[in-house]
Amino acid sequence: MALRELRYFGDPVLKTVSDPVTRFDKSTEALVTDLLDTVDAPGRAGLAAPQIGVNLRVFSYDVGSLKGYVINPEIVELSEETHEITEGCLSVPELWFPTVRAKHAVVKGVDLRNEPIVVEGDDVLAQCLQHETDHLDGLLYLDRLTQDRKKKALREARGKDWFWSRR
């Protein structure tokens, strides 16, 4: 079991668009294993490769009874119906803010054999799929907040010991 160290808000890797996976080899398998092991800790629902310092389009999820991963994910469907749901992030610990997300999401990608897979879900799983795909596009949930909430979040983040630029 390999629990990887997390990267925190302020680290440039979190604002970088991730590269697609083009090699399906032992290193990709090790990355997926690390993502699954690291997301398995209590209180975690999803983890994208940039959050452990790897600039590749891969994420893992662990929501309810569903656990898995997606390589090269792309959101292919979002419901028009949205809701405001409290959201947090492993890379922005201790900060939770209401965020508008689609209630239903569908992600297409591939598995370790480069075979197509589809993951779809409602509510918390839909939120997770959107959140993790955002990470791969260089976005944090903070980028989706209203202007007032984002100002508050940035102010609070800068005061935290984990904030990357304070290291």
From TrEMBL:
Cofactor binding: number and manner: Binds 1 Fe(2+) ion.
Catalysed reactions, semicolon-separated: N-terminal N-formyl-L-methionyl-[peptide] + H2O = N-terminal L-methionyl-[peptide] + formate
GO annotation, biological process: translation
A GO molecular function held by the record: peptide deformylase activity
Active-site residues per Swiss-Prot or TrEMBL entry: 132
HAMAP family membership: Pep_deformylase (MF_00163)
Descriptive protein name: Peptide deformylase
Organism of provenance: Amycolatopsis albispora
Organism classification: Bacteria, Bacillati, Actinomycetota, Actinomycetes, Pseudonocardiales
